[in-house]
Amino acid sequence: MILNGGGNVSNQLQEVHEMNLSAYFETTTGMGVLATANPEGMVDAAIYARPHVVDNDTIAFIMGERRSFANLTKNPHAAYLYREDVPGYKGVRLYLTKTHIETDPAEIESMRRKKHGREVEGNKAPSKYLVYFHIDEIRPLVGDR
C-alpha cells in the first residue's frame, strides 16, 4: 500500500493507516462514492457503502449488475472517495485495482452477514458479485500532492 509520498502526509491520513482500515471504516460514519470508467474513459460515479476490509491491502464491495460493475469488467481501475459525517472535509481517497470477482451467492451472503450482523431484506436488485480490489494508494480527502 502506498501512502502518497511527497513528505507531508497529513496527520489524518497517518491516523487512518496506523489504526488500520478495518477499524477506520467500522468506527466512522460517512458517505462513499466509487468512480469507475469504461475502456473509452467515460467516467461513472456511484454512491457506495463503506467497503468490506479484507486486510490493509484489500477491500471488497458487494455489487449488482450495474454500470460500475460493467465498467470494472473492462477496466480494472477505480477510485473510492469516503467523506466522514463531521464538519469540514475529513475522509480518504482509495485508488484501487480490481483483483477478482466472487460469484458464489453463499460467499456474498456470508460477507454481508459478517459485516452487517443481519440479513438485508427488500433489495430491489439482488447483489450478484463480490468484487475484490487491491489498494494501490491512500490519500486524504482534501489536499496532498
Descriptive account of the structure:
The chain is 25% helix and 40% strand. Strands 1, 2, 3, 4, 5, 6, 7 and 8 form an 8-stranded mixed sheet that branches. It is α+β, with helices and mostly antiparallel strands and 145 residues long. The two termini are 17 Å apart. The chain has helices at residues 11-19, 21-27, 67-74, 105-116; strands at residues 2-3, 30-37, 43-48, 52-55, 58-63, 77-84, 91-102, 129-140.
CATH class: Mainly Beta
For the sheet with most strands, the description reads: 8 strands, mixed
Shape: globular
Kindly report the name of the CATH homologous superfamily: Electron Transport, Fmn-binding Protein, Chain A
N- to C-terminal separation? 17 Å
CATH topology: Pnp Oxidase, Chain A
Total E-strand runs: 8
Question: Class by helix and strand content?
Answer: alpha+beta
Strand fraction equals: 35-45%
**Which CATH architecture would you pick?**
Roll
Backbone CA Rg: 15 Å
Rounded mean pLDDT is 83
Count helical runs: 4
Pattern of helices and strands: EHHEEEEHEEHE
Summarize the structure.
With 145 residues, the chain is α+β, with helices and mostly antiparallel strands. Strands 1, 2, 3, 4, 5, 6, 7 and 8 form an 8-stranded mixed beta sheet that branches.
Protein traits:
145 residues; alpha+beta; Pnp Oxidase, Chain A; eight-stranded mixed β-sheet; globular; disordered N terminus
SSE topology:
Blueprint: E1 2-3, H1 11-19, H2 21-27, E2 30-37, E3 43-48, E4 52-55, E5 58-63, H3 67-74, E6 77-84, E7 91-102, H4 105-116, E8 129-140
